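Inverse folding, one chain.
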């Protein structure tokens, strides 16, 4: 249903230079997890999910807008195996088409029950503000070497988790779920998002590329402030910290050698175990919040299944 709705979007408009990149970005696929979660939350309380389709597509359009601008900011070359918009077209096109996607996202989100419109727009607009805050923290962290675990967790909560949480809360709100259920579903998504991002950090070092879906070690090569790196530095011995610092500062190291060496240091320091521990903690908290939703377990099983699927990307 999500894919059919995306294909049917009226994007064959003029000027083509504005809308072709939008169609291109939305055609690249992906898990579509955010709109699916919104529809699932709605479906917990209502059988016919069609009234929730437009807001769900709005959320997916917004998500892809953030990816388009992220790629531009990061000077990325490829997204889902295809050339990024700023390289296929140019930087100005990426900015303008992204801006248009943001406006379209709000237009699609507004195609919901007028009774629920104020609540939906409050949740969605607050989430959009928080995601920008998370992105700015991520940018700030690039020039800092004293990022704490607490700061990192807050950054990924804002940048990643709140959109999953928003999807579930809006779906429940549109279905007229009890407020306590909508809040519990929000917390379920928030904690699931944290577990998912920590797993992403872990698999970038220890994953099997064939299973993980992308080449490992990318975060290591660009010295990205991940859970692994920010915990390795304070927990390392002086000797290991010095060695890790040398790899971080190296400008001409062989990429494969750097990935192997840094991963070995992470294992020696024990941050792999720390990452798994935190990951499992947040996943357990997600399960606890789902248990608080006042519906029979059989109704909630589909959300448990998708949570398990998200966390099943093993090395």
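Residues assigned per position:
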């Amino acid at each position: 249903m999500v894919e059919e709705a995306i294909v049917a979007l009226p994007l064959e408009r003029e000027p083509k230079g504005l809308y072709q990149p939008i169609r291109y970005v939305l055609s690249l696929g992906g898990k579509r997890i955010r709109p699916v979660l919104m529809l699932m939350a709605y479906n917990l309380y209502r059988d016919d999910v069609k009234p929730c389709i437009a807001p769900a597509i709005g959320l997916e359009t917004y998500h892809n807008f953030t990816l388009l601008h992220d790629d531009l900011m990061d000077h990325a070359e490829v997204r889902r195996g295809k050339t990024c918009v700023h390289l296929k077209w140019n930087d100005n096109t990426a900015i303008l088409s992204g801006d248009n996607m943001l406006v379209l996202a709000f237009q699609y989100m507004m195609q919901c029950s007028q009774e629920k419109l104020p609540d939906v727009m409050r949740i969605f607009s607050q989430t959009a503000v928080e995601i920008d805050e998370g992105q700015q923290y991520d940018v700030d962290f690039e020039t800092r070497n004293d990022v704490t675990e607490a700061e990192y967790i807050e950054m990924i909560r804002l940048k990643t988790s709140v959109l999953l949480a928003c999807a579930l809360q809006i779906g429940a709100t549109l279905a007229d779920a009890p407020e306590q259920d909508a809040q519990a579903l929000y917390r379920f998504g928030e904690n699931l998002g944290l577990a998912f991002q920590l797993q992403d950090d872990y698999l970038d070092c220890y994953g099997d590329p064939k299973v993980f879906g992308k080449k490992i070690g990318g975060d290591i090569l660009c010295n990205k402030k991940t859970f692994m790196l920010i915990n390795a530095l304070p927990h390392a011995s002086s000797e290991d910290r010095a060695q890790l610092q040398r790899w971080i500062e190296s400008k001409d190291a062989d990429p494969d050698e750097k990935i192997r060496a840094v991963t070995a240091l992470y294992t020696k320091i024990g941050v792999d175990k720390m990452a798994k521990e935190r990951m499992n903690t947040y996943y357990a908290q997600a399960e606890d919040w789902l248990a608080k939703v006042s519906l029979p377990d059989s109704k909630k099983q589909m959300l448990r299944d998708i949570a398990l699927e998200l966390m099943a990307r093993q090395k």
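The two ends are 31 Å apart (CA to CA). The first strand starts at residue 78 and ends at 79.
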